[in-house]
Amino acid sequence: MPVSRVWLAELTGVVLGALALLLIGWLAGRPGLALLLGLVAYLGWHLLHVWRLYRWLNRGRKFAPPQARGIWGHIFDDIFRLQQRNRERKRKLAALLDRFRQSAAAMPDATVVIDADWRIEWINDAACEALGLRLPQDIGQRIDNLVRHPDFVAWLHGNDFSRAMEMPSPEDKRRTLSLSIVPYGRQQRLLLARDITRIRDLEQMRRDFISNVSHELRTPLTVVVGFLETMHDGDDECARKWARELELMQQQATRMQRLVEDIMLLSRLETGSDALQEEVAVPVLLSAIHEDARLLSGPAGHRIRFDVDARLWLRGNGEELRSAFSNLVFNAVKYTPEGGEIVVRWARDEAGAPLFSVRDSGIGIAAHHIPRLTERFYRIDVARSRETGGTGLGLAIVKHVLNRHDARLHIASQPEQGSTFTCRFPLALALDAPSPAG
Ligand code: ADP
Question: Tell me, what's the pLDDT at 70?
């Protein structure tokens, strides 16, 4: 029945009852008393039902509601219906939660639900196995008290979860885990850990393979180049007859040698085992590169200018820096037509951070190529790169070296206008050249 009708029926009952009482009271000569008695009886009826409602609610919701007439009958029925609906909804939610928990528990990736204070709320079986957590003892404990790897603790407190972190599993040091944190809800976090041991092993195998192959190719290539040189320089009939072919073979063999050297350097950079703690005299290094650039330019007659802060040294790896800087300078020579201008700068920027830049007036690069230039073997014009003896690995090496020095590469270029390659090093790596007296 609609609410308004129930309410109207009750009101009508009360008004009619009051009128009847008034009539009876009037006939008996005591209308006031009759009305008062009626009111007391009505109040008593309500109190009785309030008490029945109270007792029913307190006895537990399982019992059927008390039987009542009038508005109280409706109130009991409505509350009972509401309770039943709630009970049904709860049952469905519990079933859903159960299913969710079962599926999350069965997930192969370790999953930990953490609250705003880094306390564990829930973990699945994979988390127990991968992170060495125990159920139910560890629920409510802080995750950084249980997983104590220094990198993990630093990552957790760094509060920057845009990147995943890697660490050995606390349960088995041979396994590598990749951990990520996904914030959700109200300051809650989901910690996910994936076993990436196989991927890492495969990467290592790939690196070892490349490094071994290039190493093995080195010796035969040196022998071939040596003999080709001897044959080419010979003064007999055969050398004269095959001069052109021998020269081409020599060129290609030398290119292969350069390729092997670059691949070996890249694989060394990837392993990142060499120290980065040398005090590198960059000005000395650059003067050697200046000389080589002049030789490379040869008859092309580029105007090459080196603008070097002689007092600025750098903390890092000298060999790697020499490789990166020479690649950039030699590219400028290779990709700038005869007579063009090349300006190399080594100085501090406004903030004091070391800056290395190479500007050329060469062929330039179209904007859409720029983001891909540091990919291995990415060349805009393959024929031209080959012609100039390029391997397509130069800028990949530059990028790796800079990454290892926490430096950034910026490329600005316009076709036919020239290019500027800028390497920005962190201020912390800048060193003052030792004074001659010291
Ligand atoms: P490569 O051995 O082919 O020079 P790099 O990795 O050093 O390989 O460079 C990749 C490509 O970037 C080159 O093939 C060339 O197309 C382009 N490039 C590099 N430096 C310059 C430059 N200074 N001016 C124009 N193009 C350049």
Answer: 86
d(CA 13, CA 379): 95
Evaluate: CB of 176 within 6 angstroms of ligand 1.
no
| Average pLDDT of every residue of the chain | 91
pLDDT digits (tens, 9 = 90+) for 153-162: 999 988 888 8
Question: Is the separation of the CB atoms in 309 and 348 below 8 Å?
Answer: yes
Whether residue 262 has its Cβ less than 6 Å from ligand 1: no
pTM reported for the whole predicted model: 0.69
**What's residue 111's pLDDT?**
92
pLDDT tens digits along 326-373: 999 999 999 999 999 999 999 999 999 999 999 999 999 999 999 999
R_g of the chain, CA atoms, integer Å: 42
pLDDT 10s digits, 6-30: 889 989 999 999 999 999 999 989 8
User: Ligand 1: does its nearest atom lie under 6 Å from the Cβ of 387?
Assistant: no
Torsion angle in degrees (nearest 10) through CA of 19, 21, 24, 28: -130
Cα separations (Å) of 34 from 18, 27, 42, 47? 9, 10, 12, 20
- pLDDT bucket at 437, cuts 50 / 70 / 90: low
Per the structure block, which two tokens stand in for 369? 């190529």
373 pocket-lining for ligand 1 (C-beta < 6 Å): yes
CA-CA distance, 273 to 316, in Å (whole number)? 13
Q: Whose CA is nearest to atom 18 of ligand 1?
A: 331
375, 395, 411: residue to mutate for ligand 1 pocket, most atoms within 8 A of CB: 395
Q: Which domains does the chain have, with CATH numbers?
A: 3-100 (no CATH), 107-195 (3.30.450.20), 200-271 (1.10.287.130), 278-432 (3.30.565.10)
Which tokens sit at 356? 């290395």
The beta-strand segments (E) located in 171-283 are 176-184, 188-195, 278-280
Strands 303-308 and 278-280, by their bridges, are: unpaired
SS3 category, 345? strand
pLDDT > 90: percent of the chain: 68
